[in-house]
Amino acid sequence: MQKKFSPDSFIGMHASHCFCPSWLSRTGTGYPYLSGSGNIGMVPAHRAAFQLFLGLLEPGQMVLHRCGDPGCINLWHLYIGNSQQNSRDRILHRDAQTRWGPLALHYHSEAGLHVSMRQPLAISWHVCRVADRFEGFDPSQCFTPNWLQLTSDGYLQLPRTNALGVLAGAHRLAYSMYVGRLSKYDVVEQKCGNQLCICPFHLSITGRISQLDWEQRYDGRFKKIV
């Protein structure tokens, strides 16, 4: 089913469907990743999503896909497991007689962005070792995870950096994964007025800083020159 969505508007997620946004870069094996935000380097999007909305990871822990789709960042489909569970999941999806159901959703925007929501028929339901099962986002409620630390200017952040939240806050990561493409010059704010909120329903681009203004405010190399 083809549906349209407006840029700068979160379309929501469904437990029964994947969430695969077109605007994220991908590795050769199909995993989306984030890069260039606050010097965080290249971060797998499914691991960042888990830590933003479900809980922090310890070194060596694996974030697995219940749906078997590496491009999916639906929080209902992510869980912490081990190599044995990973192998069982691969067998489950490989041996599924029918991999995808007929009720796929495809959202398109006039800006050329799209979100693919295929319907996986084979979904593993191993108990997650870290977090409770995801309960979804409520448009009427903020989401303020208490496991994330604050930036110097009062935003939540992941990972911990010395960068300002207006550059590398968790709200910017959440927007770039679940709402739409984001430039470093875009200003992302919470429509709810809560600076700690990272609920995708509450995030919006409210303006854009010119390249010169951005360099004057935030680029340390520019400050050294002048």
Low-confidence stretches: 222-226
Please report the number of helical segments: 6
For the record, give the distance between the C-alpha atoms at the N and C termini, rounded to a whole number.
55 Å
CATH class of the largest domain: Alpha Beta
Strand order of the largest sheet: 1-8-9-2
**Shape descriptor:** globular
Return the structural class: alpha+beta
The sequence of SSEs as H and E is EEEEEHEEHEEEEHHEEHH
The overall strand count is: 13
CATH level-3 fold name of the largest domain: Homing Intron 3 (I-Ppo) Encoded Endonuclease, Chain A
Helix content: 10-25%
Largest sheet, in brief, is:
4 strands, mixed
Number of domains: 2
- Do you know the CATH architecture of the largest domain? Alpha-Beta Complex
The overall pLDDT average reads 86
Classify the beta-strand content into a percent band: 15-25%
Radius of gyration based on Cα positions = 18 Å
Task: Report on the architecture of this protein.
The chain is α+β, with helices and mostly antiparallel strands. It folds into two domains: 116 residues, Alpha-Beta Complex (Homing Intron 3 (I-Ppo) Encoded Endonuclease, Chain A), CATH 3.90.75; 77 residues, no CATH class. The protein is 22% helix and 19% strand. α1 packs across α4. The longest helix has 13 residues. It is globular, with a radius of gyration of 18 Å.
